[in-house]
């Protein structure tokens, strides 16, 4: 579904340039439900905004389904945003209209794309557990309910990819669990590919794969040891318990070594590397004296 190779994003303001993505590589398979984690400023939202067609990449390759997002024209981008991809933000004020009902909010993107379907709009609201509240105006719903309306809206045009930026950032744990269950159901039943950006490690433990971004590059990947675990794990396993951790190698064979490891060994800009037939050993450079 998604393939990014050596993806670069540079933000230029009057006097500074910020390189938010520095040659990032990531692939997401059709029908996968995965999470992206990373410290503040590591480039997570930048990546999601590029995948959502809200921002343009500076260099590299980005393919989502049939679309090459580096070469896509402005007209095609409008179609892409309407048909292929759905977006959910932490702060849902961006895609909700407070004086319309929940149902009218879901119908609006359908009307804009000429695919009005009231039955499907109702079904979506039922899927997110709001069957009884679809006639309520948005301002009469709680924050968690509004977030569930936002999920229904994001699916109104039957996208094959759902991007969620901190979707549970401003709701309580119970609502956050409910939202993750809704994502899992949509992923299984509709086959929607789902990419979630989050700070929340317990939430990350509920997906099949987690990719960690550090300094604008993919660094580590956590893959679920037992893909059937989520039925058993209502109590919540930590990501380390539930997933196997791998360091990511790019096509040129480069890998990122965590700063803390380098500092602990006093490695600065060089290291010695040895292959003993079984493992690769990285050490601080031997003293030349
Ligand atoms: N429009 C912009 N103009 C200039 N710099 C930007 C812009 N958007 C993001 N950046 C910079 O790019 C870098 C990556 O930002 P990004 O928002 O992608 O990080 P993030 O991992 O999503 O962080 P957070 O978890 O805090 O949301 C940061 O240094 C940020 O300041």
UniProtKB/TrEMBL annotation:
<dbReference type="GO" id="GO:0005886">
    <property type="term" value="C:plasma membrane"/>
</dbReference>
<feature type="domain" description="ABC transporter">
    <location>
        <begin position="2"/>
        <end position="240"/>
    </location>
</feature>
<dbReference type="InterPro" id="IPR007159">
    <property type="entry name" value="SpoVT-AbrB_dom"/>
</dbReference>
<dbReference type="InterPro" id="IPR003439">
    <property type="entry name" value="ABC_transporter-like_ATP-bd"/>
</dbReference>
<dbReference type="GO" id="GO:0022857">
    <property type="term" value="F:transmembrane transporter activity"/>
</dbReference>
<dbReference type="GO" id="GO:0005524">
    <property type="term" value="F:ATP binding"/>
</dbReference>
<dbReference type="GO" id="GO:0003677">
    <property type="term" value="F:DNA binding"/>
</dbReference>
<dbReference type="InterPro" id="IPR003593">
    <property type="entry name" value="AAA+_ATPase"/>
</dbReference>
<dbReference type="InterPro" id="IPR017911">
    <property type="entry name" value="MacB-like_ATP-bd"/>
</dbReference>
<dbReference type="InterPro" id="IPR017871">
    <property type="entry name" value="ABC_transporter-like_CS"/>
</dbReference>
<dbReference type="InterPro" id="IPR027417">
    <property type="entry name" value="P-loop_NTPase"/>
</dbReference>
<dbReference type="InterPro" id="IPR015854">
    <property type="entry name" value="ABC_transpr_LolD-like"/>
</dbReference>
<dbReference type="GO" id="GO:0016887">
    <property type="term" value="F:ATP hydrolysis activity"/>
</dbReference>
<dbReference type="Pfam" id="PF00005">
    <property type="entry name" value="ABC_tran"/>
</dbReference>
<keyword id="KW-0238">DNA-binding</keyword>
<keyword id="KW-0813">Transport</keyword>
<keyword id="KW-0547">Nucleotide-binding</keyword>
<dbReference type="GO" id="GO:0098796">
    <property type="term" value="C:membrane protein complex"/>
</dbReference>
<protein>
    <submittedName>
        <fullName>ABC transporter ATP-binding protein</fullName>
    </submittedName>
</protein>
<feature type="domain" description="SpoVT-AbrB">
    <location>
        <begin position="244"/>
        <end position="287"/>
    </location>
</feature>
<keyword id="KW-0067">ATP-binding</keyword>
């Amino acid at each position: 579904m998604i393939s990014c190779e050596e993806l670069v994003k540079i933000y230029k303001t009057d006097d500074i340039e910020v390189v938010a993505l520095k040659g990032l590589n990531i692939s997401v398979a059709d029908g996968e439900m995965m999470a992206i984690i990373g410290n503040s400023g590591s480039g997570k939202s930048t990546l999601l905004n590029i995948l959502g067609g809200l921002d343009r990449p500076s260099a590299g390759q980005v393919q989502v389904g049939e679309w090459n997002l580096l070469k896509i024209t402005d007209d095609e981008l409008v179609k892409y945003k309407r048909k292929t991809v759905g977006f959910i933000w932490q702060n849902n004020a961006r895609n909700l209209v407070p004086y319309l009902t929940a149902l009218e909010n879901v119908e609006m993107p359908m009307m804009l794309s000429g695919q009005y379907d009231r039955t499907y709009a109702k079904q979506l609201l039922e899927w997110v557990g709001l069957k009884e509240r679809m006639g309520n105006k948005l301002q009469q719903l709680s924050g968690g309910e509004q977030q569930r309306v936002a999920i229904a809206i994001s699916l109104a045009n039957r996208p094959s990819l759902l991007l969620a930026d901190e979707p549970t950032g401003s709701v309580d744990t119970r609502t956050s669990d409910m939202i993750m269950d809704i994502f899992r159901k949509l992923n299984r039943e509709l086959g929607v590919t789902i990419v979630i950006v989050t700070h929340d490690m317990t939430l990350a433990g509920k997906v099949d794969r987690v990719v960690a971004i550090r300094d604008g590059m993919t660094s580590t990947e956590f893959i679920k040891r037992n893909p059937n675990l989520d039925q058993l794990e209502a109590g919540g396993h930590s990501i380390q318990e539930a997933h196997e951790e791998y360091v990511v190698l790019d096509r040129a064979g480069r890998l990122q070594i965590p700063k803390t490891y380098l500092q602990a060994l006093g490695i600065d800009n060089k290291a010695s590397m040895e292959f003993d037939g079984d493992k690769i050993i990285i050490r601080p450079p031997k003293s030349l004296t």
